[in-house]
Every structure is written in C-alpha cells, then in structure tokens.
Amino acid sequence: MKKILCVNSSPRGTQSESFRLSWAIIDHLLRRHPRAELVQRQLLAGNTHHIDSDYASALGAPEHDAQSPLLCGSMSESEVLIRELEQSDCLVIGTPMHNYTIPSALKAWIDHVVRVNRTFRPTPQGKVGSLQDRPVFVAVSAGAIYSGALARQPDFLTPYLTSALQTIGLRDITFFSVQGVAFGREALHQARKAAEAEMVHHFLASMSGEVGPVDLTHNQSKVSE
C-alpha cells in the first residue's frame, strides 16, 4: 500500500469524534504500511462546491463529450477529486451521522466522484463501476445509537454510502462506529472502547506481527482543502 486517502467531513474538523476514529483506523493501517503516503482531504464548509450547471449538462451529454479534457466549473473540481481517489490504494472516510445520514459536505464529495461515463458506466444490466476496488474504511460517529439491539433511530448512512461506493467499483467496505456520544462521558468512553476492540479484531489477522505505537508525524502527509 503506497497511498492512503483520508476524507473527513465533520464541521467540527479535527475536534470531532469521527476524525478521532478515522485516525485510529489510519494508525492501524500505518502499523502494516509505515511508508505509505497519507493524503488528507478536509471537507469543511464551503471548500467543496456543489455541482453546477456545467456538471449537470455533462451528465446528459454523449460519453465522449462527458470525458472531454475541456472541463470547467464544478466538472474541473470533480476531476481533481476523482484523480485523487484513483491514485489512492486505500480510502478512509470520517463522517458524523446527521439526520440519519451523511452531512452535506460529504454528499457534495460523493456527487463529484460518482460520475457517469467517468467512474461508472450505465449498461442494460445496471451501473458498472470503472474504478479498481481497494479497501475502504468508514469511521462514523453518532449522537444516538443506530445499530444493534439498542438502536432507536433509522440508519440511512450505511446503505447509502455502500450503494454509492459500489456504484463506482469500491466494494471492499468496512464500517466502524462510535455511537451514543450524546449520552455522556461514560457512554462515550464505552463507545470508544467498543470501536477500538472491533478495529483490533478486524486488523489482527493481517497485522499480527506488528507491535508498538506508530508516530504519525513521521509519515509524509498532504492536506487538501
């Protein structure tokens, strides 16, 4: 693994629980791949634009026009984000759950990278992804509990992200979550412990020979905003 792309979408930035969880995942990855380059994309408010009329027009254009190098408006931004994803060997997404699903900043990123005749093509049998599969890890934080026996709210985030990523060819998807963060400090502590135990269980087989903490500051890292 040469390059890890980390996309974080919480409006709280580095102070968010989903950011913390995404870095815990990266910690596990770098234990196995200490020389991997880390590229960070922070989807803060206003720095990832919603698709515009040029993009919408291209969606209905013939395939050769949709792939034209003369890109403008949000099509140009879409190409930057797609190439960033194409050049990665692993994708980590950090996201809070907002109103049962993903925040608008992450939805804007999805709209840019899930693009007809670029990252998927329509066929009579359905949409076929154009990207090579790679591991995807999704770090989710939620104020309430949305999975398991204690779930008290619906979850549209997990099935939506799964479907959107599978559309472009990314099928190796693993979700980790910290749930019930609004229920107080002790609940947050227990949720963090449960998430860490789940990560250890997931990564144990492939990382059984790795020991000791990873100093993330020693890895080459590029931040995109």
Counting DSSP H or I runs of 4 or more residues, the number of helices is 7
Q: Taking Cα atoms only, what radius of gyration do you get, to the nearest Å?
A: 18 Å
Number of E strands: 8
Assign the structural class, choosing from mainly alpha, mainly beta, alpha/beta, alpha+beta, or little secondary structure. alpha/beta
| Percentage of β-strand residues | 15-25%
Distance linking N and C termini = 23 Å
Relative helix content: 25-40%
User: Order of SSEs, N→C?
Assistant: EHEHHHEHEEEHEHE
Low-confidence stretches: 209-218
**Shape from CA axes?**
globular
Strand order of the largest sheet: 7-6-3-1-2-8
User: Sheet with the most strands?
Assistant: 6 strands, parallel
Indicate the multimeric state: single chain
- Overall pLDDT confidence: 88
What labels would you give this structure?
two-stranded antiparallel ribbon, globular, alpha/beta, 6-stranded parallel sheet, single chain, 225 residues, 8 strands
Describe what this molecule looks like in 3D.
The radius of gyration is 18 Å and the shape is globular. It has helices spanning 17-32, 53-59, 63-66, 74-86, 104-113, 157-167, 185-204; strands spanning 3-8, 37-42, 90-96, 120-123, 126-129, 136-142, 173-179, 221-224. Strands 7-6-3-1-2-8 form a six-stranded parallel β-sheet. Helix 4 (74-86) crosses helix 5 (104-113). The longest helix is centred in the C-terminal third of the chain and has 20 residues, at 185-204. Mean pLDDT is 88; it is low at 209-218. It has 225 residues and is an alpha/beta fold.
